[in-house]
Amino acid sequence: MSGSRTTYGNGAAPSGALKVFFRSWAGRAHTPTADRVEDKLIVGMQLARTILGLAAAVWLVAAYPLSGGGQKFVLGKLLELAFSCGILAVGSIIGITAFLVASTPDRRRDFAGRLRGPISAALLLAAGPLCIWLSVETLKGDLIDGEDLKDIFSTVTGPGIICTVLAFLTLAIGWLAALAVLLGSSVYTLLATYLCVFTCFLARDVHQLLPALISPLLVWSLFAFQMFNGPDVAAPPEVLYTFMLGGPLSVTALSVWEVRRLRIRHGITLRAALGH
Predict the structure, then answer these.
(1) C-alpha angle 246-59-190 in degrees, rounded to nearest 5
(2) Are 211 and 10 in contact, with CB atoms under 8 Å apart?
(3) Four-CA torsion 225, 229, 231, 236, nearest 10 degrees
């Protein structure tokens, strides 16, 4: 189904609270330059496509039964989000590397100075799974268990009931804290993954053309993924493939239009971006 795909790509900055949150989350302030402009029409077109895609996805799910159960559908969307994040991470690395290699030395130094955003986004995203792993290991008792705590406290209080009580209380508090971290880091990871996908890992901070060049890679990769994984709903083939193709075709068309508008309206071209 193309609906969830149509909520990704094109690198439009999140609006409202999401934009403020992600900018503070990445620890940076956005400073427009000659090749980073704010075009309200581009943002509006991206937002309109996202809303239409989301509405179409909701209608499709409401109009036709799910191919599997609700749990399978949710897990499939989570897997698709993770796949999108991986594709965009690879695409961003390739795109940014190509910009650095193909640009002139002066532009290369300029682009290198803009890498803080994408690197920060990647590191902050990685912090989520790391916290999940640490909390799970703590809950399983693989990091530290009751016997280890008893040994630690016995060096201070000596063996006995006090040592046992302290070890139990510490273990219980640690277990509750690990559970809280697990829940919080799971929500954080989902939000961070969505934001990284939505903003193409802040590739726009390196150059405004990058999201438009990377987004088609994402949507066509997702199209291939869903062709291999099977449809989410039991819809007629003509309806199903119309929706499956709608996402990649609309994103590709919008990306081509965005590149053209940046060239005509703002004089931003790939040749100029590379300093040639």
Answers:
(1) 80
(2) yes
(3) 90
Q: Which residues contact 211 (CB under 8 A, 6 or more apart)?
A: 9, 10, 11, 12, 199, 200, 203, 204
Which DSSP string corresponds to 60-121?
HHHHS-BSS-HHHHHHHHHHHHHHHHHHHHHHHHHHHHHHHHHS-HHHHHHHHTTTHHHHHH
Q: What angle do CA 146, 149, 155 make, to 5 degrees?
A: 140
Tell me: the pLDDT tens digits for 193-223?
A: 888 888 888 888 888 888 888 889 888 988 8
Q: Which residue has the tokens 């993954």?
A: 193
- β-bridge partners, 25: none
SS3 track for 109-124: HHHHCCCHHHHHHHHH
Please give the model's pTM, rounded to 2 decimal places. Answer: 0.70
- Which of 6, 35, 10 lies closest to 258, judged by CA? 10
Half-sphere exposure of 112 (CA within 13 A, CB side): 10
C-alpha to C-alpha distance for 157 and 269, rounded to whole angstroms: 71
CA-closest candidate to residue 209, choices 271, 127, 128, 133: 271
